[in-house]
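Researcher: I need the complex structure. Ligand is pyridoxal-5'-phosphate. Inputs:
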Amino acid sequence: MKKHNFYAGPSILPNFTIEETIKALKNFANTGLSLAEISHRSKEFDAVMKETNSLFKELLNIPEDYEVIFVGGGASTQFCMIPFNLMNKKASYLNTGAWANKAQKEAKLFGEMVEVASSKDETYCYIPKNYEIPEDSDYFHITTNNTIYGTEIKEDYDVKVPLVADMSSDIFSRPIDVSKYAVIYGGAQKNLAPAGVTFVIVNKKVLGKVDREIPTMLDYRTHISKGSMFNTPPVIPVFAALQTLKWIKNMGGVEVLHRKNLEKAQILYDEIDRNKLFKGTVKNKEDRSIMNICFVMNDEYKEFEKEFLNFATEKNMLGIKGHRSVGGFRASTYNALPKESIEALIEVMQDFEKMKK
Ligand SMILES: *Cc1c(COP(=O)(O)O)cnc(C)c1O
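Model: Output:
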């Protein structure tokens, strides 16, 4: 029976990505060697890196004065690379969840970290609005999609200071206006590739403004000047990312995926709102994520939480257990998840509802 993959990360990838990567692991670009055992300086891999870079820029419409780099270390290393490269005295952060919190912790090592607003008081079930960003901030940091709590900032904010965004779990899920951001970064393992590669989109104009010395590997300029080949890049995840980018292009681009994502999220949220057993955990509908859909059992049915999880798992709904800090359920609906998987989950929710009548 078909497995429905709702894992939050690492998570579902297009079949195309998996198949092409398997082929390259056996025989990469007709070299007769595996992608895993060939020099990253070979002309074959060099071509992969260059194409990944150009297709990434093309699909997100990235303006001329921006560069895209691919590095290791995960989004979590970016939590310190951002202040290392951009913060002189003061930076502002919006606290929308556990990842935002971790980013804030690193920033404090480099100067004054201003938390402009936080939704921690209500387990991050909403996106704070109406706050002041100090105009002398070196940058303002946001997490556009809060993977754990299922909230999402779906617009490109207009702010007066350089805007930095962790887009680990919603990159390529919707069109973005890159020109509104100074830096956008994320781990690849939610919507792009297997774990191991991190993308950073950076406006070159914001670099070179801090007084401190930056260790070579943590300096964005190192990776920009060497085309992400200063040291050995994570070759397999980069190759896989390229396959996903080709798949996105073939699907019709980010606009088409966005439409599909909106539709997928809508039908699942509609069921959560309709089904008497369940309720969503996000307070305001406009803050609901289209990538991670969080829900719990209604108070009068709380006792059935474990039973539903088992019931759904038996029916091949994999990875729907909510994060331990929220409980309940989370269905991650990344680009590669087909609508059929959501329809199958909805059917399981309806079957369970009938059992409890
Ligand atoms: C998963 C995730 C991270 C952490 O990414 P790593 O690559 O594991 O360091 C950071 N931010 C967000 C929004 C995430 O979803």
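Model: Summary of the prediction. Residues 254-274 form the longest helix (21 residues).
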